[in-house]
Amino acid sequence: MNGFSRLNLAIDVMGGDYAPYEIIKGAIEGCRIYDADLTLAGDKTLIKDCSEKNNFVLDGIKIINSSDTVFMDDSPSGVLKYKKKSPVYLAAEYASKIDNSAFLSAGNTGAAMACALFNMKRIQGVFRPAIAIVIPLGSRKFVLIDGGANTEVKPVYLQQFAIMGKVYCREILKVKDPRIGLLNVGSEEKKGNEITRESFKLLKESKLNFVGNVEGRDIFEGAADVVVCDGFTGNILLKSIEGMAGFFFGEIKKLFLSNFITKVSSLILKKYFKSMKKQFDYEEYGGALLLGVNGIAIISHGSSKAKAIKNAVRVARDSLNNDLINKISSEING
Amino acid sequence: MNGFSRLNLAIDVMGGDYAPYEIIKGAIEGCRIYDADLTLAGDKTLIKDCSEKNNFVLDGIKIINSSDTVFMDDSPSGVLKYKKKSPVYLAAEYASKIDNSAFLSAGNTGAAMACALFNMKRIQGVFRPAIAIVIPLGSRKFVLIDGGANTEVKPVYLQQFAIMGKVYCREILKVKDPRIGLLNVGSEEKKGNEITRESFKLLKESKLNFVGNVEGRDIFEGAADVVVCDGFTGNILLKSIEGMAGFFFGEIKKLFLSNFITKVSSLILKKYFKSMKKQFDYEEYGGALLLGVNGIAIISHGSSKAKAIKNAVRVARDSLNNDLINKISSEING
């Protein structure tokens, strides 16, 4: 015994490009490594078939059978209204009812957020939950908040995002006094739009370790540990980073394949590039946390494989062990 | 004679990290290659000294002597009010008064935009000028508009940005019927914020070749030839692309320097990586165009060297030869 509570992970096994196989695989592996109980929400027959075929041992694992299916173009409100028997809803609902639980989905992001918020509710005092995601850049990683939950914001929301991001960065990434940067188009206080100008003032007056505005360029140079922005900008940034990394590694691949000499060189350099690529690996953190809901809610990337899910279990366990939700609550209300 | 008018370039030689040397060098070279007249605005003594030291031939080149200096933290309105004898103001003023001219500055962006707009005025019917910039990604390049002129926008502004970006893409990049994408957080019409939703409607109803919403990921996969967004998002995206490219190539360099084997490989691969790096070379297009002002105004990157300035002269010449300003005017008012 380590004195910590045992995590119970409730997972939507039907969401994600590689569901259910990779999701179940990652969940079982993660819960074994990180010593957690597991609840799978999804089509029971499919779960059993998949497990049998792949020798997944389901002993001690709870299964919640779903009868609704959520599609990628389902609206969040539609899922809440008409699909309460869907895996994503059932997993969130279950997680909201039992202690020491976490909810995870790699499916329709809007639906996952809605189900988490609807079932778990907000932490008292929180205006809007926000998506916090670790952008992996080797040693220069940072937490981006909001990654897409709120396309419209107010300065007080951004101030809370900063607080929640700080707690996450401190408790999970173990950065002692996280430097908070406000994503903006210039470093001067007066730069940006009305919302950033007002947010700058709030952050400057707060007790946060606020390092001021950070620009698109600065964040890749380690200017801040937590980068705060609205969910519109954050989502575009997030996906651009992903798109650009994909483009880069695609170009390198093309380069290596271009002739005999480059092909030979690529064999020599392969392992180095592999470790470089790993620095951009979003799977390392398994997903984004929806901070501000009264429970641990993880939204994983649609293309998550078992490794991402396994790592998401680690993040969920760390969140529980470090009492993340209560710490956010006390910092928001303190 | 090619039947085209001869360009007269008026350039602020004091703006930019490598001013005046690289600016003068690039301007002289560009005007020689692209057959243009040249007007240099800046400290006359400094221009003459720099030219003498570097064997720049100033014959036939007009010099406008400045007596004010613009700094990077000068506010645009301050420059307009108190620094009318600054190189950036004088160059814009001169360009606004003579035919077939273009204005160029690599200095304080806000000041350059303000001087261009104040002197050249808006094209009739244009609500707000916007920065159009080519994002070079090899064969997948696209025009981003607005790159930072307007941190607050209305849907009708975005509609005009799309029109101006289209004309630029068609006339300068020679894309026949440019595909217009609206930068957004999802592909569905209802995604995003109030402004993007309203803009989507306007663009859909227009005669533009509108391909719908494009996400941060899509733009690196060639989803659109013109990517339309507000200047806040655009500027953050622009600088992020730059920051990420810098980070990426920095990591490759580190990788190559890590041991003997990688050092040897790097010698073999050097030229391939050089050509890959060239695909991301913003200097290829020499700068951004401020579209919507009644004249050719180019805002070059602060770190521009002679090559960028030389290429900017080409873009200015192409803009003139293709009657860019009148075509924008007729499409905006047509």
Describe the protein in words:
Two copies of one chain form a homodimer. By secondary structure, chain A is an alpha/beta fold. Chain A has two domains: about 1-125 and about 290-325, Isopropylmalate Dehydrogenase, CATH 3.40.718.10; about 130-285, Isopropylmalate Dehydrogenase, CATH 3.40.718.10. Chain A has eleven helices and eleven strands. Chain A has helices spanning about 20-35, 45-55, 75-80, 85-95, 110-120, 155-170, 195-205, 230-255, 260-280, 305-320, 325-334, and strands at about 10, 35-40, 60-65, 100-105, 130-135, 140-145, 180-185, 210-215, 225-230, 290, 295-300. An eleven-stranded mixed beta sheet of chain A has the order 3-2-1-4-11-10-5-6-9-7-8, with helices on both faces. In chain A, β1 (about 10), α1 (about 20-35) and β2 (about 35-40) form a beta-alpha-beta unit. The longest helix of chain A has 26 residues, at about 230-255.
Oligomer kind: homodimer
Please identify, by name, the CATH architecture of the largest domain in chain A: 3-Layer(aba) Sandwich
Distance between the termini of chain A: 32 Å
Low-confidence stretches of chain A: none
What gyration radius of chain A follows from the Cα positions, in whole Å?
20 Å
Tell me, briefly, the overall form of chain A.
globular
Q: Concise description?
A:
Chain A has 334 residues and is of the alpha/beta class.
Keywords:
11 strands; 334 residues; Isopropylmalate Dehydrogenase; homodimer; 11-stranded mixed sheet; alpha/beta
Task: Draw up the topology in text.
Two copies of one chain form a homodimer.
Chain A: E1 8-12, H1 21-33, E2 37-42, H2 44-53, E3 62-65, H3 76-82, H4 87-97, E4 101-105, H5 109-120, E5 130-135, E6 142-145, H6 155-171, E7 180-183, H7 194-205, E8 210-214, E9 226-228, H8 231-256, H9 260-278, E10 288-291, E11 296-299, H10 306-321, H11 324-333
Parallel strand pairs in A: 1-2, 1-4, 2-3, 4-11, 6-9, 7-8, 7-9
Antiparallel strand pairs in A: 5-6, 5-10, 10-11
